[in-house]
Amino acid sequence: xxxxxxxxxxxxxxxALLVIIPLSDLTxxxxxxxxxxxxxxxxxxxxxxxxxxxxxxxxxxxxxxxTYTDSRRVKRVIGAICGVLAFAVGAxxxxxxxxxxxxxxxxxxxxxxxTAVASTTAITKNVFTIITLCLLSRAGFAGPKASTVRKVxxxxxxxxxxxxxxxxxxxxx
Length: 173
Fold this sequence. Notes:
Layout: H1 5-30, H2 38-51, H3 53-68, H4 72-103, H5 109-141
Helix pairs in contact: 1-2, 1-3, 2-4, 2-5, 3-4, 3-5, 4-5
C-alpha cells in the first residue's frame, strides 16, 4: 500500500497542534507557578482535567497516522510518551486528592458540597484519561515487529484438470 506523505505530514501537524495548544493555553493561565500553595495545585489539576480530552485526541491521531504510514518507531515513541503521561496523570491525581483534603478545611461550608462534586468529576476524568493513555501506549507498542512482505509463489506451468483439459500440459490429480 502506498502512503500519502503530504496527508501524513498534515495529520502529524494537526495532532501536534491538538496536543500543544490546549496545554500552552493552560500553562499561560496558571503562571506564575506556585507549587508550594495547595490551593493553586488543587485548582491547576482541576483545570488540567478539563482540557485533557483534546490532547488525547491529538495523541490518538498521531498513533493512527503512524499506523497508516507504517512508522513503527514513531508509534513506539508516542506509545512511550503515553505511558509516561499515564503515570504522571496518576501521580497528579493522588496529589489532587491529598490537596482536596487540605483545601477542604479552608472552604466555607456553603461551598463544600460543590467542591466535592467538582473534585469527584475531576478525578473521574483523570481516571478515564489514565485508562485511555494506557490503551494508547499499548497501541503504540502493538503490531508486527517487522514489515510483513508476502512472498508470491512463482507462476508454475499450466496443468490440466479434469474439468479444464489443456493440450500439451501435465494432468493434475
